Amino acid sequence: MRALRCLLLLLGMGFAAAPGAVSAGPFEIAHRGASGYLPEHTLAAAAMAHALGAEFIEQDVVISSDGIPVVLHDVTLDATTDVADRFPGRARDDGKHYVVDFTLAELKSLEVRERFDPETGEPVFAGRYAGEGPVFRIATLDESLALVGGLNRSTGREAGVYPEIKSAAWHLAQGVDLSAAVLEVLARHGYGGKESLCYLQCFEYDEVKRLRDELGYRGRLVQLLSGGDKVDKGNTDNAFLRTPAGLRELARRVDGIGPPIGEIVGGDSPESRAIKPLVADAHAAGLEVHPYTLRADSLPRWASGYDDLVAVLAEAGIDGYFTDFPGLAK
Ligand code: CA
């Protein structure tokens, strides 16, 4: 893969994974849009990410009670909207308001806020967007993809999209096939083949298999991985899947992996900047590596600054990275 990229660069042909940029550095995936600057997953945050030059813009996807995929990180609404004020009595027994219990019209009536702690009302990231309005609304996946497509045409710079299927098994248990609904929207916008600028991502290995083997998705696919040795939902054996054998198994279905930064760089102490073998092992298996999440206001202890963080990850050989701050790296 990397040899191919070098050859294409020498021939003056851009590499497909880095649209519009014949640059040797890793590309940017705007994590929840330009979420360092505007409330996450709003259309404003997606537009700003495009303007800041992100090569890809992320959409986490959940679904309304009437079956419309919407762009939100959580399966609940409590940490990013005013749902508790607007819909008293609509929480489940655990006190939380679930997206899948609300129609799209109800979801559209909510105001989206900068992420906060529902217990205290305090912002999760103190220095981020603090404006009193304008009112931000929840976007559908369809709207977000339409926005990126429109900006691609009006700017002449083609950014890609990077949707994530959230809590697939949980949604199936609620009686809704989120992956099938997402694939339908992607296909309507022309995403579905390896040539289209779209990576579909999921943490659940069972769902990644289902996307390829049962639902027939043929586009780029990324297995997200957690740190540590826990076996996550969807029978995702993180420790095994990070081994050379696990990576070779993954490569039968996926194009890349999305591990946390700590699985790329780190060691026995939080100050360690040792480069781990994961990127080299993944590349040997033919997989790209897109770590998450770079935050200028929440750096690993080993990084002296945001540019240092990007530089060390680039030295480790990553292909792209999720960042809350697209456009910030010098
Ligand atoms: Ca995500």
Weakly predicted, low-confidence segments? 1-22
Number of domains: 1
Rg calculated over all Cα atoms? 19 Å
Shape: globular
Bound molecules: calcium ion
* Overall residue-averaged pLDDT value: 93
Described by strand count, sense and barrel closure, the largest sheet is:
5 strands, mixed
Please write the string of helix (H) and strand (E) elements. HEHEEHHHEHHEHEEEHHEHEHE
Given this structure, which CATH class is correct? Answer: Alpha Beta
Counting DSSP H or I runs of 4 or more residues, the number of helices is: 12
What is the tally of beta strands? 11
**CA(first)-CA(last) distance:** 26 Å
Share in β-strands? 5-15%
Q: What structural category do the secondary elements indicate? A: alpha/beta
Indicate the percent of residues in helices. Answer: 25-40%
What is the fold named in CATH at topology level? TIM Barrel
- Superfamily at the CATH H level? Phosphatidylinositol (PI) phosphodiesterase
Architecture (CATH level 2) name? Alpha-Beta Barrel
Structure description:
The structure is a single chain. By secondary structure, the chain is an alpha/beta fold. The chain has a single domain (about 30-75, about 140-325), classed as TIM Barrel (Alpha-Beta Barrel), CATH 3.20.20. Helices cover about 30% and strands about 15% of the residues. It is built from 12 helices and 11 strands. The protein has helices at about 1-10, 45-50, 85, 105-110, 140-155, 170-175, 180-190, 205-215, 240, 245-250, 280-285, 305-315; strands at about 25-30, 55-65, 70, 160-165, 200, 220-225, 230, 235, 255-260, 290, 320-325. The strands form 3 sheets. Strands 1, 2, 3, 4 and 11 form a 5-stranded mixed beta sheet that branches. Helix 2 runs parallel beside helix 5 (about 140-155). The longest helix has 15 residues, at about 140-155. The protein is globular and about 50 Å long. The structure holds calcium ion. Calcium ion binds next to strand 2. Calcium ion binds near residues 58, 60 and 164.
